[in-house]
């Protein structure tokens, strides 16, 4: 159940592809709650980081199938959100 902004935005995603998005298009990637909508993600990012969000793109990332010995299991599915900010704004969490 989603109750606060911290429940919606779980963690930032720091990847090579995400670095390119930040450098060229003011885009930041986050892992978000599976049931969160684009509107909820936009509101949570604006409230948590004090920025203006122009667009949100979301996708469901399917869990990988993993083996341990003879056993086979699957990691859980999770949701990724790509957030585009207003020109000139940054999120200091990603800097440094």
Please characterize this protein's 3D structure.
The model has no long low-confidence stretch (mean pLDDT 94). The longest helix has 12 residues, at 38-49. The protein has a 4-stranded antiparallel β-sheet. With 96 residues, the protein is an alpha+beta fold. The chain is built from 3 helices and 6 strands; from the N terminus they run αβαβαββββ. The chain is globular. The protein has one domain: RRM (RNA recognition motif) domain (Alpha-Beta Plaits), CATH 3.30.70.330. It has helices spanning 5-8, 16-25, 38-49; strands spanning 9-12, 27-32, 53-61, 65-68, 71-74, 78-85.
How do you describe this structure in short?
This protein is an alpha+beta fold and 96 residues long. It has three helices and six strands.
List keywords for this structure.
3 helices; Alpha-Beta Plaits; 6 strands; alpha+beta; 96 residues
What topology emerges from the helices and strands here?
Layout: H1 5-8, E1 9-12, H2 16-25, E2 27-32, H3 38-49, E3 53-61, E4 65-68, E5 71-74, E6 78-85
Antiparallel strand pairs: 1-2, 2-6, 3-6, 4-5
Alpha-carbon distance between the termini? 33 Å
| Average pLDDT reading | 94
What order do the strands of the largest sheet run in, or round the barrel if closed? 1-2-6-3
How many separate structural domains?
A: 1
**How much of the residues is beta strand, in percent?**
35-45%
Tally of alpha and pi helices: 3
**What would the CATH topology be?**
Alpha-Beta Plaits
Low-confidence stretches: none
């Amino acid at each position: 159940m989603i109750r606060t902004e911290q429940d919606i935005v779980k963690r930032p995603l720091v990847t090579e592809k995400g670095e390119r998005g930040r450098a060229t298009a003011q885009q930041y990637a986050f892992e978000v709650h599976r049931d969160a909508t684009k509107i909820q993600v936009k509101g949570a990012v604006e409230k948590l980081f004090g920025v203006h969000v122009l667009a949100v793109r979301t996708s469901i990332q399917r869990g990988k199938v993993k083996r341990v010995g003879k056993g086979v299991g699957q990691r859980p599915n999770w949701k990724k959100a790509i957030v585009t900010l207003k020109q000139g704004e940054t999120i200091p969490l990603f800097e440094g």
